[in-house]
Amino acid sequence: MYPAPFEYFAPASVSEALALMAKNADAKIIAGGHSLLPAMKLRLATPPALIDIGKISDLRGIQDLGDKISLGALTTHHDVEHSALLRNNCSLLPEVASHIGDRQVRNRGTIGGSLAHADPAADYPAAMLALGAVILAQGPNGNRSINADDLFTGLFSTALNANELITAVHVPKTDTKGGGVAYAKFPHPASRYAVAGVAVWVKIDDDIVTDVRIGVTGAADHAQRARVAEEALKGKPMHDDNIEAAAQVASDGLTTMGDIYASADYRAHLVQALTRDALNKAHHRAHGW
User: Fold this and answer.
1) I need a labelling partner for 269 at 20 to 30 A (CA). Which of 19, 32, 174, 256 fits?
2) Domain span holding position 244
3) Pair (276, 208) in one structural domain
């Protein structure tokens, strides 16, 4: 099918994009377009106007900011996957990016677009939660920062206001002494979206877990922290028994969903198994094994 008629705008700056958004309240923002364009072709979405932010160069690039790394909203999955800066300092993101879709999707899709779309089965949200990332947004009232814990609010829903754009994502440098990260995923064989996925960051001192964050995607209507599992592991030795105990409660507190691909119970089981896998990988990486 063909999309319904629409106006097209291609602003060259964030301020121009925000002005166009103010004048076209029902317009949709497009970056990589991998989610919006298929919906438009099926006429599941019929926006009267598209605002293409793909030409805004200020929204591209990966920068070292000292204790953290900044990723422009238009940074592609391919660039995340192959960034030497990220691989050496925040390797969870390249690992996660490598799991996204196929080569064509990774070459066009953007990190900002993925987070703003907030697909419940997307990969990045789990990583943002595990890393404690901060999302930068800009609107008519200026700039603001949104903690990843507060960004995802429901099915395809975020804490972004309708007149705001994601401009950048800030992630900490996690690949330090005693730090370990990992992503484990059970993908749908066709779409490569996560039937369930678990991202882990753990900090270990003398094999005692001093901090841990576990992000879960695909299992519920939006990405969430596995807080019960985190609390089960904090302050304890990173031993097999404690990893297993944390994995067993990883789905506690999550309202897992069922659909034609997997039942709610099966997704709960996947979360437990993937948490076990990700924690073991993160443990090994923290020790350089």
Assistant:
1) 174
2) 179-286
3) yes
pLDDT at 29: 94
Can you tell me the distance from the alpha carbon of 105 to that of 92, in angstroms, rounded to the nearest whole number? 19
Domain assignment present for residue 39? The answer is: yes
Q: What is the pLDDT of residues 52-77, one digit of tens each?
A: 999 999 999 999 999 999 999 999 99
User: Where among 122, 143, 172 does a domain terminate?
Assistant: 172
d(CA 50, CA 72): 21
Q: Can you give the pLDDT at residue 251?
A: 97
CATH number, residue 162 = 3.30.465.10
Q: pLDDT tens, 147-196? A: 999 999 999 999 999 999 999 999 999 998 999 999 999 999 998 999 99
Inside any domain, residue 66: yes
By the 8 A CB rule, do 80 and 94 touch? yes
> Residue 109 — pLDDT band, cuts 50, 70, 90?
very high
What are the tokens at 265? 């119970």
Q: Where are the alpha helices (DSSP H) in 118-166?
A: 124-131, 148-151
Extended strands (E) in 105-227: 134-139, 142-147, 152-154, 157-158, 165-172, 179-187, 194-205, 208-217, 224-225
Which amino acid, residue 115? L
Q: Which of 15, 48, 52 is nearest to 31 (CA)?
A: 52
Give me the pLDDT at residue 104, please.
87
Q: Cα dihedral sign for 29, 34, 37, 43?
A: negative
Residue 103 belongs to a domain: yes
